[in-house]
Amino acid sequence: MLTRSPADTLKRGRLDPDALIEPFDIPSGANLIAAVSGGSDSLALLDLLHAASRKRNWRIHVATVDHGLRSESATEAQTVGERAAWLGLPHRVLRWEGPKPSTGIQAAARAARYQLLKNHADEIGSDFILTGHTQDDQIETVRMREVRGNGRGLAGMAPATLLDGRVWLLRPLLETGRHDLRLWLNARQIDWIDDPSNSDPRFERVRVRKAQEYDKGHILRLRAQAEKKRIALGIAAAQIVRNLAAQPSPGLLSLAAEAFAFGDAGLYAFRALIACAGGQEHLPDPSRSDALWRKLEAGPIRASLGGAVIERRKAMIWLHRETRHIAGIAAHRDKVFDGRFRLKSSLPGTIVANGAAARPTSSRANELPPRLVSGAMAAQPALRGESGRLVRLDEERFEPLVPPFARILLAFDTSLAQALAGLFGARKFPSPPYAGRKDRLA
């Protein structure tokens, strides 16, 4: 378990703010953002966090995301501002501007919310965003994923998630029930707002919440087991990446066939390498990956999956980016090309793929399979200037990323993410902020 049990947060019949915060290694004097919507969970988080901050000299900034989906949202944000002012804390309303999608609105709103909070963290120099997700939310999340048969996802929401490689999203209430939080608010005569969308049966989470036939104890045990398995599998896959994977030429990855002997860990490492080679934010489909893995184990084969070309030659599996569907980007500093690279400086022109004109430049590359080297280099970044001339960019112009973990890294996956960062020479990910628990994730 990465966080304490609900019993650990109780002291003399009330919630103990210090016990809730204790598992997280947040330095004294840190800037924190409390994401507060006005509902019971986030208001309780704010009150508990304010109490815990007194001896830690934290500077708490309250932020409310106004999605603009309901006419009452502006008034609700104002109410949160009044509560923040009563506590003597600064408050900012972050508005989701622009057109909203007609389908998948909750997922889109969630993505927009986290991006707005992360941008605010960048603005004020904060490394931590805290949200009020509860044990009830965790149970609903795992239940939904259980119904879908989601293996890795059964570990549920992580107590800590790294956003864009820099800002930690922390969830200190994940093992505290909503009932206890509302008792805390009632004892302090703090009113909260009930969002009507939390009762709208059009949304899957609401339907799960209203269906009480499942065993919550079973769900929590399932989650704990899945978390333990996910961390262990990630550690094993990380060892495979460190020992059996390499990048012998720009954009060209290799995985030694010895990985087949490591069962699920070998397959997990393979899926992660596919996502990295293909510039994908998510690992490829488990069943399709497993089918391809078995074919590769049987002998030489060439295939594509998740935007990557995969080829077995003798005792080696090779991977590189397909040249199809690589979108160009304006050559501005910090822009991300194809999910794989971040530009270090602005340049006059557009970043595109090298294309068929790519040629090997190193003596080491000449020792490798020429078709694979050329195929990998064709997908590397190049600059197309105003004249239309294509110029290959040297590696000092951009930094490599780890696509499946560059934007969102759950603490469960830290070991594998660090091993992949080492493989690509990418920036090392910061360790999860757990006091006395880093060894479980490193």
Task: Provide keyphrases for this structure.
single chain, 442 residues, alpha+beta, Rossmann fold, 2 domains, seven-stranded mixed beta sheet, five-stranded antiparallel beta sheet, disordered N terminus
Strand content: 15-25%
Termini separation: 15 Å
Number of helices: 14
Count of individual beta strands: 21
What's the overall average pLDDT, rounded? 89
Principal-axes shape call: globular
In the predicted model, the low-confidence regions spanning at least 5 consecutive residues are 1-13, 436-442
Rg on CA atoms, Å: 24 Å
Provide the domain count: 2
The assembly state of the depicted protein chains is single chain
Spatial order of the strands in the main sheet? 5-4-3-6-8-7-21
Helix content: 25-40%
The helix/strand class is alpha+beta
| Biggest beta sheet summary | 7 strands, mixed
Describe the 3D structure.
It contains 14 helices and 21 strands. It has 442 residues and is α+β, with helices and mostly antiparallel strands. It has 2 domains: 6-214, 3-Layer(aba) Sandwich (Rossmann fold); 227-440, no CATH class. The strands form 5 sheets. A 7-stranded mixed beta sheet has the order 5-4-3-6-8-7-21, sandwiched between helices. A 5-stranded antiparallel beta sheet has the order 9-10-13-12-11. The chain has a 4-stranded antiparallel beta sheet with strand order 14-17-18-19, with no helix packed on it. Helix 2 packs across helix 6 and helix 5 (135-148) crosses helix 7. The longest helix is centred in the middle third of the chain and has 29 residues, at 216-244. The chain is globular. 41% of the residues are buried. The model is unreliable at 1-13 and 436-442 (pLDDT under 50). One of its GO terms (molecular function) is tRNA(Ile)-lysidine synthase activity. Belongs to the tRNA(Ile)-lysidine synthase family. ATP binds at residues 37-42. It is found in: Cytoplasm.
